[in-house]
């Protein structure tokens, strides 16, 4: 009886402890860049790989149409109804809000009836091709995390290409071809994503799956991101560790899901027949009611926050990195070459933190001061690349007199054991501790440390200790 009650209390404690963890217990979140932990040397920073949450990226894009005057309504024109291609009394007029179909309606809130949509001019200039380029630009590198979904209010186009850019629109490469007849349109055999494998996942295919002309329930075109993820993570994406491992080690795979811009090339509207009906050209046009693009800012696993300010996305970089994508080390933190974070090992990954430069640590003794040699820099944990400064031979007065070096800060040189950093020149230590970073017990210098010195124990007021005391207090009547 007593044993069962004790086990119940133990289970409760384990549950509460898991809630109090400073990082997710389940792999794959990567939503914390650093946390403070207790070690034998006191309280230190523990760094880990991190990334922003996935979100709707259409809120941050700029859209450009080519040709610029391809949107219907200027001058006003009539077009045929969606359901009945021979009922041609609908009007598009850019000067009347109720009749206008500007590009921003591709990204507004869906769910209203009637739905809102962008619409092109009709194919009144046939046989000249009716072609439109829709370019989506973020001025920022983003990583796609879900399917790209395009919902047409007209029939889906007979021919279309989805393209991507990794250099802000300077060069383009195809993502996928779409056609009612791939062999005739693009000289490619038709395929679907289901025909691919781990070894061919980067293959550019042409699919006939989404090009079927006028059909009431066939308005959507997909570019399948998740189906490609599933080749590594399984059909329900339950083995994301495998996917992250592949993304970590295969640059081509990582780049495949990375873009700065997307371009939708509409090459031929939905005809639905072999021949174009030249007597009813107002039935041929493009209309898109919604585009969905889900992803996250690419921050090279060095940030969890991406801010949108002045129409620009920027990572709020951690790990002493800087730049729009956290793609370089900050000044005075170039002690080794910059490197992106790593998803591995699961669950926290590797931060690959930038470490202080030699010049920021100190200068040679020619200035009549004693400073640590670069050989005193070591890494305390290869998975946690944070420098450990061996300053035991340097007095606090000597360090404080050096005006160009920080003795302590809130990043790497953290005052330990409850010490506080004073003007970056010295640590103000609790009475029981001493040393440059409050890393040593005073009783050690006096040789009087006993078994009750408390070294390595959590601080008396820590939440974990208080909670454990409360639990045991609650349990004590049961054990009497």
From TrEMBL:
Cross-referenced InterPro entries: EGF, Laminin/Netrin_ECM, Laminin_N, LE_dom, LMN_ATRN_NET-like_EGF
Signal sequence coordinates: 1-28
Disulfide-bonded cysteines: 429-438
Domain Laminin N-terminal: 46-296
Domain EGF-like residue range list: 404-439
Keyword Cell wall biogenesis/degradation carried by entry: no
Keyword annotations from UniProtKB, A to Z: Disulfide bond, EGF-like domain, Glycoprotein, Laminin EGF-like domain, Repeat, Signal
Pfam families named among the record's database cross-references: EGF_LMN_ATRN (PF24973), Laminin_N (PF00055)
Any one Gene Ontology BP term: animal organ morphogenesis
Name the UniProt record assigns to this protein: Netrin-G1
Organism (species): Neomonachus schauinslandi (Hawaiian monk seal)
């Amino acid at each position: 009886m007593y044993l069962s009650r004790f086990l119940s209390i133990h289970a409760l404690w384990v549950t509460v402890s898991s809630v109090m963890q400073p990082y997710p217990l389940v792999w794959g979140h990567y939503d914390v860049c650093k946390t403070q932990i207790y070690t034998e040397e006191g309280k230190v920073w523990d760094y880990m790989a991190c990334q922003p949450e996935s979100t709707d990226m259409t809120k941050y894009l700029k859209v450009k149409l080519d040709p610029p005057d391809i949107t219907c309504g200027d001058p006003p024109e009539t077009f045929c109804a969606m359901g009945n291609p021979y009922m041609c009394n609908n009007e598009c007029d850019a000067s009347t809000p109720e009749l206008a179909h500007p590009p921003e309606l591709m990204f507004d809130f869906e769910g209203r009836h009637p739905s809102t949509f962008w619409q092109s001019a009709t194919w009144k200039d046939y046989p000249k091709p009716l072609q439109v380029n829709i370019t989506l630009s973020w001025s920022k590198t983003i990583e796609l995390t879900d399917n790209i979904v395009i919902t047409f209010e007209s029939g889906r186009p007979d021919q279309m290409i989805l393209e991507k850019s990794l250099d802000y629109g300077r060069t383009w490469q195809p993502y996928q071809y779409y056609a009612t007849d791939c062999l005739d349109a693009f000289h490619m055999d038709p395929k679907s994503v289901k025909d691919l494998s781990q070894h061919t996942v980067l293959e550019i295919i042409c699919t006939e799956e989404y090009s079927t002309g006028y059909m009431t329930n066939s308005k959507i075109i997909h570019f399948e991101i998740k189906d490609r993820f599933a080749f590594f993570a399984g059909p329900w994406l339950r083995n994301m560790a495998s996917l992250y491992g592949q993304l970590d080690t295969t640059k081509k795979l990582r780049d495949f899901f990375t873009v700065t811009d997307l371009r939708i090339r509409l090459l031929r509207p939905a005809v639905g027949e072999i021949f174009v009906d030249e007597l009813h050209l107002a039935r041929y046009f493009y209309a898109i009611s919604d585009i969905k693009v889900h992803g996250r800012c690419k921050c090279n696993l060095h940030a969890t926050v991406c801010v949108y300010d002045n129409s620009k996305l920027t990572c709020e970089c951690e790990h002493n990195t800087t730049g729009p994508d956290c793609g370089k080390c900050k000044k005075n933190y170039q002690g080794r070459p910059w490197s992106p974070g790593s998803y591995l090992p699961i669950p926290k990954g590797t931060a690959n933190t930038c470490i202080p430069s030699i010049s920021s640590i100190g200068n040679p003794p020619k200035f009549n001061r004693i400073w640590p040699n670069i050989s005193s820099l070591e890494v305390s944990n290869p998975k946690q690349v944070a420098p450990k400064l061996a300053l035991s031979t340097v007095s606090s007065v000597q360090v404080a007199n050096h005006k160009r070096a920080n003795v302590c800060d809130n990043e790497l040189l953290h005052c330990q054991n409850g010490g506080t950093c004073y003007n970056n020149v010295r640590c103000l230590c609790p009475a029981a501790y001493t040393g440059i970073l409050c890393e040593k017990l005073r009783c050690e210098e006096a040789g009087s440390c006993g078994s009750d010195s408390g070294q390595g124990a959590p601080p008396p007021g820590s939440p974990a200790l208080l909670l454990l005391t409360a639990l045991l207090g609650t349990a004590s009547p049961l054990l009497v």
